[in-house]
Amino acid sequence: MTTTLIGQPVTRVDGHAKVTGAAKYTAEISLPGMRHAVIAGSEIPAGRITGIDKSRAMAEPGVLAVLTHEDLPKVATQPVLTLSLAGTVAHGQSFFPMQDPVIHYAGQPVAIVVGETLDAATRGAELLDVTYERTESITVIDEGRDRSYVPEKILAGLAPGEMGRGDVAAGLAAAELTVEATFTFSANHQNPLEMSASVASWDDGQLTLWDATHGPTATQMTVASLLGIPASRIRVITRFVGGSFGAKAMIWAHPTLAAMTAQIMHRPIKLALTREQMFTGCGLREDNEQTITLGAAADGRLTAIRHEKLSITSAYDDWAEPALSGSGELYACDNFAAVYHLIKGNTMTPTFMRGPGETAGLAVLECAMDELAERAGLDPVELRVRNHADVDPVSGRPWSSKGLKECYERGAELIGWGDRDPRPGMRRDGDWLIGMGMATAIYPVYPLMNPQRARARLYADGTAVIQTAASDIGTGAATVLTQIAAEGLGLPLEMVRVEYGDTSLPFLAASVGSTGSTAGGNAVHLAATGLREQLVAQAVQDEGSPLHGADPELVDVVDGVMVGPSGSESYGEMLGRNFVPETEYLGTYQHRVDDEHALLNFGAQFAEVAVDAALGVVRVRRMAGVFAPGRVLNQKTARSQLMGGMIWGLSQALLEASHMDPRFGRWANPSLGDYLVPVNADVPEVMVETVEVDDPFINPLGIKGIGEIGMVGMAGAIANAVYNATGRRVRSFPITIESLL
Amino acid sequence: MDGPLEKIERGPEPAKLSLSVNGATLVAEVEPRASLLDTLRETLDLTGTKKGCNQGACGACTVWVDGRRVVSCLTLAVACEGREVTTIEGLVEHPMQEAFLSCDALQCGYCTPGQIMSAVKLLEEGHAGNDAEIAEWMSGNLCRCAAYPHIRQAIREVRDGEHQ
Predict the structure, then answer these.
(1) What is the ipTM of this complex?
(2) Which residues does UniProt assign to the signal peptide (chain A) (predicted)?
(3) Which of A289, A584, A708, A738 is catalytic?
(4) In this complex, which of A27, A241, A275 lies closest to B108 when CB atoms are compared?
């Protein structure tokens, strides 16, 4: 193959629609006769509804209906929390609202108001009179500390509540250096800029649902199970998604509520969450406390790691963000123990948010490693190299690929690590104290559990269409799938168009946990190369073809022309001669379980901060991240995604916090004015590089994923830089001005 | 918004409203409480202008009214009668759009129309002298994908005439 489109910095194929405003996101779909639905949420965190008076709402001009738990049909199946990664139903929690008067959390949907216009429905929801009987609630850790328990399993049964190896007590007894510290993390909400929305339309028993989701197939199967209708009668369309960061990774109640409302009203229904409802409608990253203990020999080599986490989950699910597994995977250490502690509280089930688990867990591990480096009198990079895991410490298997030492080396070069003074508080720039910190990034390579499919179709005019039910949530999926297809088919980019975001197309699991490119990319690769082989095989058997009789192995395809040892012709010429208008191939990628290798994604993060000595203001001046994410499919979009992840790390370190008011059991700051996310002026120039590691074991294209790894580690690097600048170890995230005064 | 307003008593029921959007006169029947943002998106099917918070905090709904950038979620449609409204659909092959594409100053694209509407005005306002100034004057437009360094690059390149 002579073309090398994979990896090229190709401009986003959906970019033109985005810069012109032509891109239609879910809430922008309008259908004839469509009406607007608005959810009214519970004002209390625990108790029951004692009455709903619809009269004021119904008197509002334009309000068509108020639906409550007494009006809505019962769900056909009680939902059970199931991760979207599984590629089946993806219930975000084991609970469906509006089935009875019981309230589990504030914001839980209690009514749906339907209006002629969005304004009428919104006003109607405000006028609804709901009375409640409130009972005792638990919404912050301190209210339930004495009721914590260790769950048998977390993550919908996929991970254990406790894990470990070796003997941590013995490892700590043998240690010459120990570090023990407790960290706290605020709750976070994903807050993609596009709010979740669904548009539902029924036609003769068939449901068409536009939904903002990571996985149209996940929405299809989830809604089918709740409505009790076959998946074959639901089509889900997801064209443009305005970001997600986990908010749209699981399927929450609103698409099903939209479908139910549309059925009752005999009208297409648009249901969009408000910004405030984005804090109670699609999960959260739970606030949590983590305690870590490191033991090490005098030379810094780890002898023991113990890591525990305490957090609140819902009344009905054992959810904990998997923050602890990374501490067992990152460094060579024989003795490791980790325990999750949960409190049943009045929250919806927490969920994925970018870098789920690792971002919080590694912030803790990597801050503790920074303290250990200081105790051991070692450079933080050197300490990490000394503890480098040459093989997987969990399984003992060799890595499929690694590249971490190269990441440390290059990252240190980029930030100018040599200029760092290991003594805190030594560097000054006017009123500003300057510090540098670093941390390691790792992120799991999750196995795909079911066959991932894509179809490649070539028309007799020589153009191709690639079809798969992928969702592009801003990752650049549509672009890299086009590149992979064009390279596989031997066509120029402009002759390939990708169709995606529709359950009418071949199955693809939801794009979650950095698996999107692995799932879609490998399926498209197999579809495109399969179609190419089919076409070449046809040509060498075709007596009318100049390639007749050639060895297919010796046929190359360049710009749609099959070039053999003794002749050539284009795909289109061959198809045209044979009166074939189009031909197809279905590619199926099945993850192969590798019993011989351990799979993990690696990177290194570096940050330089300035802290105002008098005011405690922290400004990140420079960031450098170097990652070894396997094959990079598009240098331009990959850079953007990794950079975005690093800035998310800045945000986790310094800005993002959802504040619970336990008196009311409600979020105190559910708006983009009060929930701080970085603005342009918060963000410095960001240095991003990749170390390309060849990974022949992981999947056909050698992809590890880049959606999360860019974020992991950055919060730790920034906290360590703040320490280096000030000598203050801040152990609560986000690091705020008041914690530095 | 400057200039005299003609006083017309209407509402609270929906009333006819004549708006000049992107040079065309459009008639919408909306309630006087309807925001310019909802009127554009829900009534006039001009969905390029985005709703990210409906509270004036994110800038995704930035449009121009009489040539000045405003957040359309906090602007009443009825207050825009007799004024010229420009949305992203009114920009045709503007160098800023090309620069956003080539610099990959976007990911999900949801904040992009608002960013571009702000960025074009920022240059006209003379607030793009250096990166710090660009960053400050673009800080009313949130980008949750965090394409900020690339947004600054795109604005720099247009300022320096690299996209004609």
Answers:
(1) 0.97
(2) none
(3) A708
(4) A241
